Amino acid sequence: MLSSSCSDALKVEGEGMMRRNSTLVCVPIIAESVGEMVTDMGKAKGLGADLVEIRLDYLKTFNHNEDLKCLVKECPLPTLFSYRPKWAGGQYDSDEKNRLDALRLAMDLGADYVDVELQVAREFISSIEGKKPEKLKVIVSSYNFEETPSVEAIGNLVAAMQATGADIVKIATTCLDITDVARTFQIAVHSQVPLIGLGLGERGLISRILSAKFGGYLTYGMLEPGTVSAPSQPTIKDLIHLYNFRQIGPDTKVFGVISKPVSHSKSPKLYNEVFKSVGFDGVYAHLLVDDIQKFFQTYSSMDFAGFSVGIPHKEAALKCCDEVDPVAKSIGAINCIIRRPADGKLFGFNTDYVGAISAIEEGLKGSHNNNGKNTTSGSALAGRLFVVIGAGGASKALAYGAKQRGARVVIANRTYDRARELADTVGGDALSLDDLPNIPPEDGMILANTTSIGMQPKVDDTPISKHALRSYSLVFDAIYTPRVTRLLREAAECGVTVVSGLEMFIGQAYEQFEKFTGLPAPKELFRKVMENHS
Fold this sequence. Notes:
Layout: H1 4-10, E1 24-29, H2 34-46, E2 51-55, H3 64-74, E3 79-82, H4 96-108, E4 113-117, H5 118-127, E5 137-144, H6 151-162, E6 168-174, H7 180-190, E7 195-200, H8 205-209, E8 218-220, H9 236-242, E9 253-259, H10 267-278, E10 282-288, H11 292-298, E11 304-309, E12 323-324, H12 326-331, E13 336-339, E14 346-349, H13 352-365, E15 385-389, H14 393-404, E16 408-413, H15 416-426, E17 429-432, E18 446-449, H16 466-469, E19 474-477, H17 486-493, E20 497-499, H18 501-517, H19 523-533
Parallel strand pairs: 1-2, 1-8, 2-3, 3-4, 4-5, 5-6, 6-7, 9-10, 9-11, 12-14, 15-16, 15-18, 16-17, 18-19, 19-20
Antiparallel strand pairs: 11-13, 13-14
GO molecular function, one term: shikimate 3-dehydrogenase (NADP+) activity
InterPro entries: Aldolase_TIM (IPR013785), Aminoacid_DH-like_N_sf (IPR046346), DHquinase_I (IPR001381), NAD(P)-bd_dom_sf (IPR036291), SDH_C (IPR041121), Shikimate_DH-bd_N (IPR013708), Shikimate_DH_fam (IPR022893), Shikm_DH/Glu-tRNA_Rdtase (IPR006151)
Domain Shikimate dehydrogenase substrate binding N-terminal: 257-337
């Protein structure tokens, strides 16, 4: 299935570790001049690429014979030439014969691969019959910028592409939902011809990461952020180092964070680095999920082993579980789901409340505003007024945890009815967010923001005025991107003790890691990883 040059590339192992897959990593080269392309090819090799895709349609000026000779000669890696027309999502908008002549010349000059679209594939392959070098592989590609068709339709498409005489087929479809990717995986596993299956858009990201698990011929990683040739393409650095792409194999377990939005999450950085350090065969991905019930119905195999659950799915996720931990049931929200190996059933937990409450208690220990509030309960929260901003899943977890520690809980939310509903559940009081600045101040008050107000990219937003923060002894923000939100910065300026959401994130992650892997959490490693990425 591999060209001889790419087979040789597989023998070069990074970081002293053997690969667990033969899926190639290809970097698209999309510079505007041949000189820039040559420079970028060298960068791609240095970053660990197996081959480069030379996008001829991006060149501002192009002398076929001279430039192709230079590109083939100077490239330190196997070459894949494409010359994408506008009707297939590329830049070229001129004579078709001229375009295909360039690809034929690239073949004659020593290209390892050429990529042609299905619409012209039969004509192109017929034109090189008897002239095709033994090492050359023809990739026949198809793009759908509207949707991902049914499994049957994709199967028929692959058959039609194979019938043109393709050595390799490539299908790229637009993912309107993350479950669309499953259809590509299904075709890839059963394909009789080497296949490249790509999901376009952020919802299709896992198609690029998990291609190694499901037998994809190659995947694409951009050279650096901003050099994107397809929507939501990861960088080669992220593929190889963040997702440990070389170590993904058929038996690798899939984990991920289910959220919307999700790209801000640092969970993949944390879990993948720790998985690698302890030798656990797992990969952890960003999962942009719109409909969580549909997600679990689609990804129901044992391969998909565990999930962190973020905003806005913490409450809806509870209904997707076969069993729920009693504490999580009491809270009414979960942030962790594991697929039990014994029977494949989904088991839901809540580790948010432990992570958040522990972080706040630690903050109070070091606070000059502690005021000796520890009681026989053993918690510094006992007797304090604990104000929670928000009424979602994370809010429920903090309210529950604070109440368990003996605090008096108040729920503040933009929608008063939702605040009242949560307050009644935990045994607290409720008010609208607009009324929060008018709450009568008292010693030792705690404020906990559990909403997304102030999260990247809207870092200038804050749920409460700076003036009102002076009434509190400690302010906690569940957001950790950025680590210091406007809320925390202004609270610190008022002399108030602050606790970052990063502390909650690390605290809840310990327990999730142990549930995911069955191994003890390496706590010092967790903290070191997060400090390196903060």
